[in-house]
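User: Fold this one for me? It's Rhodanese-like protein.
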Amino acid sequence: MYALRAALRTPVRTAPRALSTSAARWKDAWASSPDMNFTEFNKHVRSPNDEVLLIDTREPDEAAISPIPGTVNLPFSKVAEALAEGNNPGKFQNDFAFPKPAYNQKIVFLDRAAKRSESAADAARKAGYQNVRTYGGGVKEYQENAHKHHE
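Assistant: Here's what I get for Rhodanese-like protein.
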């Protein structure tokens, strides 16, 4: 009888639930192409929504000189610490003036020339973020192309 009671008190580990087929396809479709081109990025800039978060990883003084509409600023020097699992969402909101992204949030990182954005995306993936991409052209390419499209 004692063995039975002990067995009943033993926690049972269950396997993690698998993503549904449609959720897996959605994740794979988004993250399968890590670099975003100008056309796709510009679509998100011109029609911002809560589904995709555009994060500019330049330092605040750089981002202030040539801001990209619809982006939020999370300096590269702060990305790994800010997105770490233990970072309090309230502190994140205070420090960066936007809510800490959910782990399933679609995120696009960009910077001046796309070097820091790749490292920021890697840091986000290591912190548990799954739906992470970069705008490969960086701010310089975006501004050049955006100017051409407005002429």
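One thing worth pointing out: Confidence is low (pLDDT under 50) at residues 1-26.
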